[in-house]
Protein: Peptidase M20
Organism: Thermobispora bispora
Amino acid sequence: MTPEEIENAVAAGMPQTIEDLKALVAIPSIAFPGHPEEPVHKAAELTENLLRSAGLPRVERIDLDGGFPAVYGEAPAPPGAPTVLLYAHYDVQPPGDPALWKTPPFEPTVIDGALYGRGAADDKSGVITHVAALRALQGRWPVGIKVIIEGEEEYAGESLARFIESSPDLVRADAIVVADVGNPRVGEPALTTSLRGMAAFTVEVRTLAGAVHSGAFGGAAPDALAALMRMLTTLHDENGDVAVPGLPRGTFPGEAYSEEEFRATAGVLDGVSLVGTGSLADRLWASYAITVTGLDVPSVAQAVNAVQAVARARVTIRVPPSGDPAQAIEVVTEHLKKVAPWGAHVTFSDFTTGAGFRARGEGRARAAVERAMARAFGRPPREVGQGGSIPLVAALARQFPEAEILLFGPEDDHASIHAPNERVDLEELRRTITTEALFLAEYAKG
Ligand SMILES: [Zn+2]
């Protein structure tokens, strides 16, 4: 097919594509414990039917041990052609407070060229991108196609990663497209080439056998909560930069956002400054960030006049792709031990780590997707990073070190993923589908 034929096929298919996306968004496929399981299975079933409608000769559901099913599709490679694996997920985040939504989260609604609803962007737009790109090719597969759509990404289930480890041949490919990201701005194409990893642990501080009266003992009794607060404030310097020795700052090629844009997207209040120094791209994509994400201390409502004997904090570290999450935990916990005042007893527990990702700069697939994107958007893509992690990407990179992993998708930075009023811009969706379909054809050419 010529590029024009592909573009026209995608455009002609858009009304059906939008209807199918709406049907998928209408299903509350929340794979978190405490939510009904039946809609998750229903979304898997619809995903399976959608892949069948794209004409793939082999489509099946894969039951994963201890998890929701993944949906798999395949078309064999023409002789000598490479194989591409397409990834997305059909599960969604819980909607949160329905009062914050302008339209009901599971009643997909088009307003001003965007489809609103939970999962409209993250990541049912990714599912539909694959389906629509494959449909546009009308069964004339330029490369081998493999599709894997999972159902427990948001819940951070690990059954798919385990499955890939145990059955690598099923998903083995020369290039992998992860359609679970997007462009910083609608209409401005970007390839996500770097993901931060993450590490987290719980720190516990003990100073007394038990809490004691703050009148009788306060002033001399060592307060575990005060000790913990002193320790935590040493994690950053007065500018808000990470101040733990041994966590070097990195640099990212190219810009992220303007400060204005970042303030608006993050919802920073008037008069409140950002933290850290250096470019936003360096801070968000190439450097460590440490956040205290929880504290076990008496709540204000439960407060009594007592000096605390024990206090706990959950500490999360975002790790640049060049860093090692396990080593970051070692460095930060050593630091906290060192700065603990008054000989307080400090222990650490509940460690978790996830690796980051850095894409290789060149390769046949990378060149092909850059050509495809430039055509679909009318301008060449730039490189961006992402501050968050996608654990499966690290798992794929580990399992298939030779494969080129490409991250792009229709979830622009204003899509409000994981937030109320999530939406996908439908023109952005069309351009992304066009990119993917053109890429599959371009990649075949070499
Ligand atoms: Zn996602």
User: Anything to note?
Assistant: The mean pLDDT is 95. The chain has twelve helices and 18 strands.
